[in-house]
Amino acid sequence: MIGVTVAETAETYDEGEQSSDLNRAVGKQVRLLRERAGFTQRELGDRLGYGEDLISSLERGRRTPQREFLEAADELLGAGGLLRALIEDVEKAKAKARVRHPAWFRDYARLEREAVEINDYSCHDIPGLFQTQRRIRALYEMRKPLLDEETIEQRVASRLARQEILTRWPPPMISSVIDESVLRRPLGGPEVHKDQLEQLIRLGGLRSAELQVMPTERTEHAGMGGAFILLTPKGKRQVGYTESQDSAHLSTDAEAVRILAARYGSIRAQALTMQESLELIKSMLGER
What we know:
The chain is of the alpha/beta class. About 45% of the residues lie in helices and about 15% in strands. It has twelve helices and seven strands. The protein has a seven-stranded mixed beta sheet, sandwiched between helices. Strand 6 (about 240-245) and strand 7 form a beta hairpin. Helix 2 (about 40-50) crosses helix 3 and helix 10 (about 190-205) packs antiparallel against helix 12 (about 275-285). The longest helix is centred in the first third of the chain and has 17 residues, at about 20-35. The protein is elongated, with a radius of gyration of 24 Å.
C-alpha cells in the first residue's frame, strides 16, 4: 500500500508554522515611531510601564505585542491609530499560532482544509469535526500518559480550528457513520455527553452533513476492520486515512482507496437512514 506512515510518538512541532512576520513588521513600526518621538527603548519602557528588554524584544519581533501595549504606545507616540489598527491582525495571528497539530497528523490536517468531500466511519469515538469543546477537553484530560495543561490547550484549539470548514462557504460535503456504541459511551460525564448528542442533532440538520448510526443489533458489519476516513481535496484524487494506537497512515494508492470506498458504501447501506439515526440520537437524549 502506498502512503505515508508517521509514528505518533514523534510529536514535534514546526515552529516555522507560527507566524512571526507580523511581529517583525509591528516591531519595525514601533521602533520607527519611537525614534521619531525621540525616546530611547528605556525611556519608552519607563513611560509605558515596561522593561527595556521587553521593548527591545518587541521591536525585534521576538515577542507578540499585547493589546494594552499597542493602545498605550499608539497614544504616547502619536501614531494616529496606526498601532491600534494592527490589534485585530495581531490577535488573529496569536490565535493561529495556538493551532499546532502533532507532526504525525499535520499532512491530514492540511488536506482536510482543502477538502470538498469527507466520508468518515467511526467506531471508537465521535469524529473530531463533530466534537464539542467540552468533549475535546475531556478526551485530552483523560489521556495516558498525562498531557500538561499547555499541550491540552493547544490540542483543543487545534481541533476547534479544524471545525471552521463546517461553516465556510462552500462547505465540504460530509457524510459520517458512527457506531451506536460510541453514542452510548458518556465520556466526560453526563452533561458533556448530553451536549455532544445535541451537537450531533444540530449537525445532522445541516444540508452539507449526512449523519448515520450503525446499530449494535446488526448481524453483519462491513466496518469490523476499524475506523477510517476518505477525503477528497479540491482538484485532487481521493485519499484514505487511518489511525491506530501509535501511528497514522495516509494512503494515496488508488486500489487501496477504492477498497475503502467500497467498504464505506457497504457500511452506509447497513446503517440506519439519516432520519432513523437522528430519531435514535433523540431517544438517547430522552433516556438521560
